[in-house]
Amino acid sequence: MKKSLKTKFVVMTFICVLLAAISISMVSLVSSRNIVDKNSKSIITLTASKNAQSINTTLTSIEQSVKIAHSHAENTFTAIDDYRYNEYLLGEYVSQIELLLKNAAENTPGALSAYIRFAPEYEFPLEGCLLVYNENGDPNINEDESEGTEGYEESDTEEKTESVPGFYPHKMTDITKLEVKKETMWYFSPKMSSEPQWIDPYIDTNRAENTQIISYVMPVMKNGNFIGVIGMDIDMKLVISTIDNITAYESGFAYLCNERADLIYHKSYPKGVSDENFRSFFGVDKATLRDAKSNDILIAPTTDGKEKMLSVQRLANDMILVLTIPRVEIEADRNALMTQISVVLFIALCVAFLITMETVTFLFKPIKHLTEVSKQIASGDLDVEIVCKSKDEIGTLADSFRTTVGELKRFIAKINKQAFTDAATGAGNKAAYAEAIKRAEIVAKHPGSGYAVIVMDINYLKMYNDRHGHEFGDMLISDASELIHSVFADYEIFRIGGDEFVCVILNPEKGVCETLKTKFKAAVARFNEGSTRYELGLHVAIGYSEFGGTDTHETYTDVFARADKDMYYDKLEIKKNVKMPEGYVDDRTVN
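Now predict its structure.
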């Protein structure tokens, strides 16, 4: 029986469509698998990195608090003999440090105590000072009950000297009776190493419910001599609460190890695991975890035959945060997508067979065009040109592609802007600031290149908020931001806190920072001359520092710390010339 030319053409066309569809489906399936795998790893890494950054922000804040007090302690210490025989002079010195420690502890989340402890071999008239947080206020402390790491169990005495929760002085332990062990490394470790360091979490048996704490300590040195230790104890619950809230996919969770890969916290193993069982429980040995770098993805086979994917993040105190997710959950999305693609392609082929009988010639050209467009879109190319003027379903499909591409472009542009811009001030946000830090560190690796950091902090924001409300404070931030943008418009500006801004300048010209500082001070003065909006005026403390060169081995943190310190001194100068409103009391050292 003869077949009509139309039938032959339809059959031939359908075979071509079928072959093309099979080829496209194979490419789509492979591409989809690769894309989903890549996105899954990105999601895991981003989740772990985001939470690690949150913990690092807290740890960095603690380090900065201790470093400020430590800097003052070393810079103001004159000589050992000056204090050994002068209790009054030593008392003045300790009082200054105590004030700094109290302010630092009150502004540090999770802080339990802060202290400076002198080495007993010098036989100073005072041992140092210890401030302990007491939620019931300042208790009458029984000095005979001082035992342990710093000996600060709460007194059972019913009479209280202060009803306000806060940090109060506490009697100190006789350090000559302490032995070198895990609970006393807060003193012996910095003494032996002469280096600042984080102390691994340990149980403080002197606190209620045997509180687990971590400590950041720094040795106080003078002319190469170890004078004592200054540090702060932090409630480990601050870190654990963040870890407990880390989730990914259906059952992904995180656990924490120290730098030696010893298990510190795991919700399923509160007492830890032995070295022999570590690999069988977690699918990876300690050596692998120790060698892993931040953002590494590890495949961990376990004894139950279910592989896990681990995302490793190094924290600021060298602890290791591990996000673990069963691989089957990660692959579920990929498998579901592949199944959907297969079903959709099968249905499309069936429909194509039915409509090809009448419309193959008419539809072939636009279908081919839309197929190419879809491949470009699938590959991430959104700058595609969709040419289809037909008024039928193909035309509607082409319009849908155009609409989808347009919406995707707008959505991506919006997300990119939101991801890196502070909505209130138009400055770069913390995510943008993190990228700027990476760029600065890359530039600093090249000889002859460098960067500068300018730190600005709005003064009296708390006072305006207290007296006039947060809307008035927001207006102050807005006005200050406009001044900052007007002076630093040619450089990158970031808002890294409620009232703190940072400008990062790559390869700065000689003297540009001082010029910008002078220009900014002048702009602030002009604003205050022409405005009576703020009763104390608008004041912004500013400080800067420049990278010292590749031979200095400086990190961005070092440069920022100097700029922040320079800004701090400028803030103190501003306070000298501005009188606070009568009757207003600020309980902070600097606002």
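The two ends are 97 Å apart (CA to CA).
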